[in-house]
Amino acid sequence: MRRVMIVGCPGAGKSMAARRLAEITGLPVIHLDRHYWLPGWVRPDPQAWRARVEELASQPRWIMDGNYGSTFAPRLSAADTLLHLDFSTFVCASRVLRRTLGGLGGRRGGELGDGCLERLDWPFFRFVLDYRRTHRNRDLEAMSGFAGNLLRFESPRQLESFLAALAARG
């Protein structure tokens, strides 16, 4: 496990899983949200974004969390392990609400770029509510050709068990 990609609906806990896995493995964490969003929640140029992800994915060791479907291919081709947090809409939506309301005006533990403070974003919340219906199949299709170790977790409890077992192995 040298290059780990963590994907799933917003609110599934990708960043938390990345931090926990980093504590266990010593691998560096790359939060894609931090690299994607420019100050004031401005989206980057698509070509510049893809080049940045390719640069990040070329590093020898990492844990990279975030979906960003347009950059699945370069990350999947570089990763040796893929964690798919395939949690229910209820779990993800409730976590997004809790995270948003509890962190308004903050930087979400350093996961966000400079000038991007936590905010209420109804279109984003709608995306979370619609993810399983509108984006999950696209993501599953992209993952279907992954040649490395694919680990799918359907509940936070499954993920926690995996991380605890990994930590116990030392």
Explain what the structure shows.
There is one protein chain. By secondary structure, the chain is α/β, with parallel strands linked by helices. The protein has one domain: P-loop containing nucleotide triphosphate hydrolases (Rossmann fold), CATH 3.40.50.300. It is 51% helix and 14% strand. The protein has helices spanning 14-25, 32-36, 46-57, 72-78, 89-103, 122-134, 136-143, 156-169; strands at residues 3-8, 29-31, 62-65, 81-85, 149-153. Strands 2-3-1-4-5 form a 5-stranded parallel beta sheet, with helices on both faces. Helix 5 (89-103) packs antiparallel against helix 6. 26% of the residues are buried.
Give me the side-by-side strand order of the main sheet: 2-3-1-4-5
Rg estimate, integer Å: 15 Å
- What letter string, H or E per element, gives the SSE order? EHEHHEHEHHHEH
Question: Would you count the extended β strands for me?
Answer: 5
**How far apart, in Å, are the first and last alpha carbons?**
14 Å
Discrete helix count: 8
Q: Give the overall shape.
A: globular
- Report low-confidence residues grouped into runs of 5 or more: none
Domain count: 1
Quickly give the CATH architecture: 3-Layer(aba) Sandwich
- Computed structural class: alpha/beta
The residue fraction in helices comes out at 40-55%
In round numbers, the mean pLDDT is: 93
GO molecular function, one term: kinase activity
InterPro entries: Cytidylate_Kinase-2, P-loop_NTPase
Keywords: Kinase, Transferase
Organism: Devosia geojensis
